[in-house]
Amino acid sequence: MSEQRDDVRVDDPAEFPPQEDTVERLWTPQRMTYVLRNSEDRPTKPKTKECPFCAGPRKSDEDGLIAWRGKHVFAIMNLYPYNVGHLMICPYRHVGFVTELDDAELFEFEKATTLAMKVMASVSHPDGYNIGINQGEVAGAGVAAHLHQHVVPRWNGDANFMPIVAQTRTMPILLSDQRAAYAKAFADLAPDFGLPLKTPVTLG
To answer: Quick one: which of 69, 71, 46 has its CA closest to 57?
Structure first.
């Protein structure tokens, strides 16, 4: 039997903290994809240069995070939201600037934005909204080649110390659950806006 080394610390189990401690835990499992974005632990997938806004509508609504499909545009959840409930309105056509939309696309693009606000009001009851388009890389567009309009619900007091001291945004609901709630509201409200409602896509 080997002798215990003097430079090895052995803690008394009785001094360990109890299982129930006073630390608050914030569960945000949807952020793991972002956390592991450069990690060897992340499952490897073939890299593709395909536009995510072109690929999204070809998936099921659940896998593509699609909340609503119109004739010319669709509503999709932001995978890395600025705030809980953040979604985007995108044309199906791969264009980079709003000036490239034809009249029918432009009408539905803006009409769908007002519909999205009503959907958020019925589901999440925000106090206000941030709505905007970044056109071109120089303007800060993450996917500059495919036009998308951000619609972000805001609440009084929704910003706290977390983004400042920890570069972390807290999201109290999973994207999948938020998408499902929005999808139901889109289905209920779209006819009131004179907008088409396509059958949700579910791939087996």
So the answer is: 69
Q: Is 194 left (phi over 0), alpha (psi -120 to 50) or beta?
A: left
Predicted TM-score of the model (pTM): 0.70
- CA distances 149 to 14, 78, 111, 146, 192, Å, are 57, 11, 12, 10, 21
What does the pLDDT look like over 120-154, one tens digit per residue? 999 999 999 999 998 888 877 778 899 999 999 99
Pick from 158, 148, 153: nearest CA to 124: 153
- Residues labelled catalytic: 148
**Residue at 193: amino acid letter:** F
Both tokens of 151, joined, read: 């619609």
> What are the CA-CA distances from residue 15 to residues 10, 12, 22, 61 (Å)?
11, 6, 16, 51
C-alpha triplet 27, 121, 58: angle, nearest 5° = 70
> Which one-letter amino acid corresponds to residue 190?
A
H or E element at residue 90: strand 87-91
d(CA 178, CA 75): 13
- Give the C-alpha separation, 112 to 56, whole Å: 17
